[in-house]
Structure of Nucleoside-diphosphate-sugar epimerase:
Amino acid sequence: MTNKLFCFGLGFSAHLVARELKAEGWKIAGTTRSADKAEQLKSEGIEPFIFSDGQPIADIASALEGVTHVLSSAPPGGMGDPVIHHHGSDLAALPAGTWIGYLSTTGVYGDRDGAEVTEDDDLLPSGKRGRRRVAAEKAWFDLGRRHDLCVQSFRLAGIYGPGRNALETVRSGRARRIVKPGQVFSRIHVDDIAQTVLASIKQPNCGAAYNVCDDDAAPPQDVIAHACGLLGIDPPPEQDFATAKLSPMAASFYEDNKRVSNARIKQELGVKLRYPDYRAGLLALHDEILAKLQGRDENVS
């Protein structure tokens, strides 16, 4: 029997997982919010369905037909987790043992004043988005327990990768070096998210939560400075967080200060990070940018 993955939300991370599995011969289906994106997915051989907070999947029976694995990256909103809100009963009817992955965030831990957190620590979110994530995780795990589904949660650190990284921020002229003394963030390259999810599919641990981050929680201003160094330009001046004019959304990212342990994905799933820190990740992305620019030059000539 051919495995079939259904993705609720084919965003930056889930889309890469889907492409990896499609290359292995899996059938892939999933959701998007727009008809244009649906056409793009169809061109990739992915069966698309329209879904959003206010628009459940019209033909959910067809969507979930033959599904062996489910991955959800849909963020929770005011109604809670939109997938469970609209289609929890449909998922409950899947065969016992069906693998379900939920892409959560390390925001569920809240602020730890720079201390390390593991998956065994209490969930103490500091803001509304974090509280919604905790509630969504609980809803997924409850669904798994009640209906014998193999649910795992992946708590993702700050995600970066092709087209979405500090190099692009610097190149666009939007980079700022905001300094909040003692502040560190954990990060993860999208390729390492994909390999972690794939490792869990191959050796599932029902009910487990996994921190997905690299080895080096670092101050954000250091990442920008390193990106500038790779690009050969001067970094922007440092700005004190206390006096920097940030949007409420941007300022909210500085509410939590913690170092996230990734020991469990290494020990239980055998994950060997391709990009163990932002320096390795940005260097690889920089090399990709140079290769593309060189390719364009060769095509022009």
Summary: The first helix runs from residue 12 to 23. The first strand starts at residue 4 and ends at 8.
